[in-house]
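User: Can you help me understand a structure? I only have the sequence.
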Amino acid sequence: MKLPKFLLADNSDFPEDLFVVHTEYPRFILNVEEEDVEWLDDLEGDDEETVANEATKVVEEAFKWCDEELAKYEDEEDEE
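Assistant: Let's start by predicting it. Here is the structure, written out as tokens:
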């Protein structure tokens, strides 16, 4: 099965939070409201700085994607 790179998620145990799930390496769950990341994969690499930069880049990409997705929902609501 082909999965999207990012998924939006919520949970009734955390009604105020919104999550982004990153399905590719390095997999993680981002709590958008708390700006907290739970890594599901061990971040490995020869150069810690490179690994940290790549991790930062993909988390920033997740925030950007989330903002764009939420804007789409708002646009749909405005059209109704």
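Now, to help you interpret it: The first helix runs from residue 48 to 79. The mean pLDDT is 92. Let me know which part you'd like to focus on.
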